[in-house]
Amino acid sequence: MALRDVPEINAGSMADIAFLLLIFFLVTTTMDIDTGITRRLPPPVEDDTEIDIKERNIFKVLVNSSDRLLVEGKPGDIRNLKEDVKEFMTNPFNLETLPEKDIRFIENLGEIEVSKGVVSLKNDRGTSYEMYIKVQNELTAAFNELRDEISLRYYGIKFSNLVNQDRIKAVQEAIPIAISEAEPENIGGN
Amino acid sequence: MARFKKKKPSGPQKINTSALPDIIFMLLFFFMVTTTMREVTLIVKVQPPDATEVQKLEKKSLVSYIYVGVPVKSQFGTESRIQLNDAFATASDIPEFVASEREARNEEDRKFLTTSIKADKNTRMGIITDIKQELRKANALKINYSSKKVQSLSN
Question: Which of A13, A122, B2, B38 is the most core-located residue (most Cβ within 10 A)?
Answer without folding.
Answer: A122
